[in-house]
Amino acid sequence: MSGEVYGSWGDRPAVTVLLPVYNEADTISTVLTEFDSTVVRPIGAELLVCEDGSTDGSPKVLRDLSQKLNMRLVTCPDRKGYARAAQDGLSQVATPWVFFADSDGQYDPADFWKIWAARESYDMVIGRKVRRSERYYRVFLSKGFHLLAKAFTTIPLQDIDCGFRLIRRDVLERVLPEVRSLRYSFWAEFTIIAYRKGLRITEVPVGHRPSLRGGTSIYSWNRLPKILVSQVLGLLRLARRLNRERSVQSRSPPRAAVQG
Q: Which of 40, 117, 243, 251 is the most buried (most CB within 10 A)?
């Protein structure tokens, strides 16, 4: 990852709290302070913030915050996009667990404790939004996408693209290299691949608040046709790839025979 790193950690704790940031200058101080007081300090977690080429002054706000909070900040001068930024941030995690949360303020940090309490029997615990606090067309698009994802990949989970989840570090090593088909649904693809690998996954109900900065330009009306086409084609590519892999595995000889 190119860019600059600010701050450091002491002894390695059990979990890294990771938030990606893009153009959140007006609200990120509130969000990070809330996560710091509600999650990071009580559990003794690492706080990792990955800034993705913001143009609104977010890097300076974050550099100032890195002097006040016990956090590690990684900045990047160029915009990579959510999926690449998430992958780069996750690749830096060195603790046994990583807790990922979007930084727009829509998730209540207190819901971390519900997810943390469920971790013992699972490789990944995903927040399932009880009610989406978003515009109607985004809720409609999300429901449509989930129906297609279930039809194409047979995944039974309800909120596969939720950006509020706890993951074992070894899961990252197994899944991240294969995430490459869904440009606008990084977490959905990650979840589908993890499920098809037989990893243990559960969902925990969490709240969902209105974004602190209002709407998002990513899903503006003029971009919806392009996003819809990209999502459907991406799901088709992912389903074909996973089915080919399963077909190859089913034709492979038993492991004992291979080791011979």
A: 40
